[in-house]
C-alpha cells in the first residue's frame, strides 16, 4: 500500500477493473499487482499507453503509480489502469479535467463483448443452412 499523499481513481475497460493510487512526490515508478511494470507486462507499447495522461497534463515523473487490477486480459487491464490514472489526476487537480476530457482519457470505452444468443453459433452468426 502506498504511503504519503495519495490520489485515488477507479478505471474500467471491458471486464477489467483497476484501482489506482497516485503517490505525490514520486519518481514515475509503476507498481501493478505488487510487481514492477516490466514484470507485470513485457510489451513496451502498453507501457507507453500508461504515460498518456501524464504526457498530456505535463505531470510526467511527479507521481508514483500503485495499482491493483483484475478481470479481462493484460491489454484491457492496461486500459483500465490508464483510465484510473486520468481519474486520479482530476482528483489531484480539478483544472486538469478540461485537458484530459477531449483526449478521451476520462471516457470509459463502452465496447464489451456481446453475449451469445440461443439458436445461434455466436452472438449474431447463425448456423450454416443445409438444404439437404
Concise account of the structure shown:
The chain is an alpha+beta fold and 132 residues long. Helices cover 33% and strands 23% of the residues. The mean pLDDT is 92.
Main attributes of the structure:
single chain; 132 residues; 5 strands; 33% helix
Describe the structure.
This protein has 132 residues and is of the alpha+beta class. It has one domain: Ribosomal Protein S5, domain 2 (2-Layer Sandwich), CATH 3.30.230.10. The protein is 33% helix and 23% strand. It has a 5-stranded mixed sheet. The longest helix has 19 residues, at 74-92.
- SS content category: alpha+beta
Corresponding CATH architecture: 2-Layer Sandwich
How do the strands line up in the largest sheet?
1-2-5-3-4
Number of strands: 5
Beta strand %: 15-25%
Shape: elongated
Order of helices and strands: EEEEHHEHH
Task: Please give the largest β-sheet.
Answer: 5 strands, mixed
Taking the alpha carbons of the first and last residues, their distance comes to 65 Å
Poorly predicted tracts of residues? none
How many distinct domains?
1
What portion of residues is helical? 25-40%
Radius of gyration: 18 Å
> What is the tally of helical segments?
4
CATH topology: Ribosomal Protein S5, domain 2
CATH class: Alpha Beta
Mean pLDDT: 92
Amino acid at each position: 500500500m502506498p504511503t504519503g499523499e495519495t490520489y485515488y481513481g477507479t478505471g474500467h475497460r471491458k471486464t477489467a477493473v483497476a484501482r489506482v493510487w497516485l503517490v505525490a512526490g514520486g519518481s514515475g515508478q509503476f507498481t501493478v499487482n505488487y510487481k514492477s511494470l516490466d514484470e507485470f507486462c513485457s510489451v513496451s507499447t502498453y507501457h507507453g499507453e500508461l504515460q498518456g495522461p501524464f504526457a498530456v497534463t505535463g505531470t510526467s515523473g511527479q507521481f508514483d503509480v500503485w495499482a491493483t487490477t483484475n478481470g479481462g486480459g493484460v491489454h484491457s487491464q492496461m486500459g483500465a489502469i490508464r483510465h484510473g490514472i486520468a481519474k486520479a489526476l482530476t482528483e489531484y487537480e480539478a483544472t486538469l479535467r478540461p485537458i484530459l476530457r477531449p483526449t478521451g482519457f476520462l471516457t470509459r470505452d463502452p465496447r464489451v463483448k456481446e453475449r451469445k444468443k440461443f439458436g445461434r453459433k455466436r452472438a449474431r452468426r447463425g448456423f450454416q443452412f443445409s438444404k439437404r
